[in-house]
Write a structure and sequence with these properties.
Order of helices and strands of chain B: EEEEEEEEEEEE
Radius of gyration of chain A: 14 Å
Distance between the termini of chain A: 36 Å
Number of helices of chain A: 0
Helix content of chain A: under 10%
Shape of chain A: globular
Largest sheet of chain A: 7 strands, mixed
Largest interface: A-B, 27 and 27 residues
Structural class of chain A: mainly beta
Strand content of chain A: over 45%
Helix content of chain B: under 10%
Structural class of chain B: mainly beta
Radius of gyration of chain B: 14 Å
Oligomer: heterodimer
Number of helices of chain B: 0
Strand content of chain B: over 45%
Shape of chain B: globular
Chain lengths: 116, 115
């Protein structure tokens, strides 16, 4: 099992550009999450999904969009990049609460994004 | 809403020293509690967990006990190694009926262990 994979590892964007951060998991997890990690801060939830075709906003969704067409993939889209979106982005997946897993979330290695 | 507060860092120790990283939480209901570790350049990994009051989670020499009366989940290790240098995150998961399993994280504590 590869677990949770993310691409790219690093990216520099100019203000106003767009990009998609890719996330794939091979554990057949229903739940998937996108977090951002800012220096000295904990992780903040951007969006989450409880299954294919179902997504919802987390704490900090502004400036981002997601889709979930398959169980495996959960891409995060930045439409108009802004300096405030400079951060490290982590994708995670889990079986979900109530599945006997205590909702252990498995994280990808992250994407470091800089917007200049 | 739910929140997690960790002790201010960074923490610098010598090898074989005793480690404590404090974590307190605020939550409605009965959350599950976690410690995650992030090694340099990597994603977060689950270190240990506890799902109900008085449970003790343990892994790799680290321990934490779920204390409902003090709303705490302090991380301890009796003898740290250089390889324990990492960022440690305390987190809780809402386990309520309408939950989507959201994790609420503390701000993280940077641990550096010197030989």
């Amino acid at each position: 099992n590869a677990g949770v994979t993310q691409t790219p590892k690093f990216r520099i964007l100019k203000i106003g550009q767009s990009m998609t951060l890719q996330c794939t998991q091979d554990m057949n997890h229903n739940y998937m999450y996108w977090y951002r990690q800012d220096p000295g801060m904990g992780l903040k939830l951007i969006y989450y999904s409880v299954g294919a075709g179902i997504t919802d906003k987390g704490e900090v969704p502004n400036g981002y969009n997601v889709s979930r067409s398959t169980t495996e993939d959960f891409p995060l889209r930045l439409e108009l990049a802004a300096p405030s979106q400079t951060s490290v982005y982590f994708c995670a997946s889990s079986l979900g609460p109530g599945q006997g897993s205590y909702n252990e979330q498995f994280f990808g290695p992250g994407t470091r994004l800089t917007v200049l | 809403g739910d929140s997690v507060t960790q002790m201010e860092g960074p923490v610098t120790l010598s090898e074989e020293a005793f480690l404590t990283i404090n974590c307190t939480y605020t939550a409605t209901g009965y959350p599950s509690l976690f410690w995650y570790v992030q090694y340099p350049g990597e994603g977060l990994q689950l270190l240990l967990k506890a799902t109900k009051a008085d449970d003790k989670g343990s892994n790799k020499g680290f321990e934490a006990t779920y204390r409902k009366e003090t709303t705490s989940f302090h991380l301890e290790k009796g003898s740290v190694q250089v390889s324990d240098s990492a960022v440690y995150f305390c987190a809780l998961s809402d386990t309520g009926g309408t939950s989507y399993g959201k994790l609420t994280f503390g701000q993280g504590t940077i641990l550096t262990v010197h030989p």
